[in-house]
Design brief:
The complex is a heterodimer of chains A (411) and B (476). Chain A is α/β, with parallel strands linked by helices and 411 residues long. Chain A is built from 13 helices and 13 strands. Chain A has a single domain, classed as Alkaline Phosphatase, subunit A (3-Layer(aba) Sandwich), CATH 3.40.720. Classes of the chains: A alpha/beta (411), B mainly alpha (476). At the A-B interface, α6, α8 and α9 of A face α12, α21, α24, α25 and α26 of B.
Chain lengths: 411, 476
Amino acid sequence: MRGGVAAFTLGFAAPRFLCDAALAQGAGFRNLVVVYLAGGNDSLSMLVPYRDPFYAARRPTLAVPAGQALQIGTDSAGNELGLHPRLTGLKTIFNEGRLALIQRTGYENSSRSHFEGTDIWSTAKPESTQGPGWLGRYLDSIPAPVDPLSAWNTAGETPRALQAQTVAVPSILNPATYAFQSPNGTAEAENERACAIRMSSHLPIERPHLSFVNASAQAAFATLDRVAQVGAYAPSITYPNNGFALALRAVAGALSAQIGTRVFWVQTGGYDTHAAQNTLNGSYATLMTTLNDGLTAFYQDLSNQGLMNDTLVLQFSEFGRRVSENGSNGTDHGAGSVMMAFGGQVRGGLYGTAPSLSPDPANPTLENGANDVRHETDFRSVYARVLDQWLGTDSAGILGGDFRSGSPEFL
Amino acid sequence: MTYDPRIQHLLRRAGFGATAAEAAYYSQRGVAAAIDELVNFGRVADDVDARFAAGEPLSPSSVINDARQRWLFRMVSTRRPLQEKMALFWHNHFATAYSKVAGRVGGPEATRMMCAKSAEHPAGIRGQLELFRDYALPNFRDLLTEVARDPAMLVWLDGRANTKVRPQENFAREIMELFTIGVGQFVEADVYAGARVFTGWNLQQIGNRDDPNAFYQFFYNAAQHDTNAKAFSFAIYGNGGRTIPARAAAGGMQDGLDLIAALARHPETARRLARKLWSFFVSEVQPPDERFVEQIATVYLQSDCHMASTVRAVLLSREFQAQSSHFARYSWPVEYVARALKEVGYAGYPLNNALSPLSNMGQQLFEPPDVGGWTLGPSWFSTAGMLARMNFASNLVGRQRTDIGRAATGNGATPEALLSFYLDRLTPAPYERAAYEDLLAYLRGGAPWTGTEAQLRVKAPGLLHLIVGSSEYQLV
């Protein structure tokens, strides 16, 4: 929370945990699933400019050959593009017109640091990454009392983007084990639970850090019973057995049970591919398989239940990677990257233009001596579109500025 | 049986809490002598491994979960608590994750690289954790040098592939951004120059690839060292020179030693370490006091990067000793677990039981989320993290039920007596009146109080679960 504890507890009004209120808030509500690819995604391997005359030369071992890229047509500048060969399911969604790929997203003076980069994408404030995250600020804008299940983080720590002042976002990795245990039998266990709930209800204002921990315990207790419903979820299709897919399965379960959550956070790591990236059959290929199979299963499961029209998936990473491969068959930290959005109401297609990979230092689509991809679309304009057109709020208020101009029209 | 609260505070911070015997021992010595003994831990005998080996047979030098148990056992039972606390500090500072290393060299070799004792290695090479123990409090520059040559680090940040044809930036970036001077103190060109400095700092495999006794060791590969000069944006030498001169390949390792020395004595490294030590030892409630930071940074620089002097100055500081610093940190999951084990008792408790809960709390040893280490402070307290702590308390108390019931017998004449008995033995932050009354109400709830053994067998574990699972107990 980085110094946000005092602000948090002052703003934290003990919420009224009314299940019906949550249901009323949740039923028919649009939801957003943010997918974070941790480590800096090599977007040139995900969305491949296979005809670029410099592509293979700058990536002698990593380039995806034209014959293997899943060709999806050309962007507005006439660049021919293809998806990574493992993204077969996403190509189907693209063909259905429900997947948008937004090229060269980023910001000026892109940070090459994982931590600063993630903070910038999380707070949407490149100039100073203090305070709550951009999704946290959205949650703070929901009229009180805020349902503690308004957002659901499937990762271990609360991601910066979801840190808010008025609500402690629950982290629920596995709904089936999200329960309060006791050393004693049923009746006494109930007594313990009742006592623990009472103890966590005290939020002494002069002890903000204690109140913060109590508020977290309180939010846990307030969400246990509804989350237990999700633990019993029987999806319409089988999900792969990995952490990413199981997190998406939990999200689908929450949507299916209509427990009222509006924002979900899912992340998957391993994208810091400095060495042995092996795009076609090694570690990057595995990353793409995990990404594709998880997202495709999620899309099919929700589509089967008629829930995809209320769902928007938005993918990002903290930076793209360098254009030229390094000596260890990997890629180092770069700048601009690709964002994906898909959902039942997304206008699919290729947005923005691919970079030219020419090593000429004057190449305007690259930066840092033509080493890194230069951004064309400010990532905040993508957030602005999601906030305005999907979540129905005022993006300028939440982002602290008007980023609507030039925003890609995928919604 | 009330112990000196200043000693309890010291042992929570410079150790993992205290058993009753330890609290009594250090209380009798007094704060100054206790600090002296903690810092000069080399004088204290170390018999932990013999005691660990006497337990159930495990393979802590080749199986990572066994290594996790061994480390936890040491945290709980060492008589050199500050050494272990600093090893944990360095593990977070030089955060290296087993999973990536294992993906490259296999599980047994990765476990050996992360945490084998030198006696357990065919060539006597110590694992990374042993490095952190050996350099827990000596010179930071020496530690940094050892880390740069550490096999696990060379795999983790890809230094093993750093060659003059294609320099590898990963380690060069992180040694500046995370291990020393911090973001904002260097430019991209320094990262490229730094990568070239460490070209040839590679690994070599000794023994046949299929031989189970084969292993990797550090290897300065002169043929892969970039011999050109490297220019930096900050001073490398005492005379202010910013360029590492061109050198013959054979002596090119000196490039790295020059850069490490420059980074170690950089004033921003001193300040960053001082701020990290503030959060680790003094307070996460108050931001680092700038006067404190300058004072500790000065000790560090004047002692030529000597961590024992630096940490001693932290522990002796007014800010550390202040009452307002008591319970002003959010315990890391391993701090919480180790302290609960020490205070509740762990005789016969399988430490393996603690591993999944630790993971659910967000801290699996040898598996930090990334090279930046764990996100500390309030971030530990997601709802799932808090639930995992309450549930660990339940598991521990449930397993130790017999011992707990026995100890409570004779101390539970009234609910007040039982509560007071535990509040003397456990060290939660003070309860406000309302929370205290909640605990009493729990004891009074259900059947009328009789204080019989049968009632204590239920209520004592229940009460301990509530205390150890309470928010007050999460603060250290």
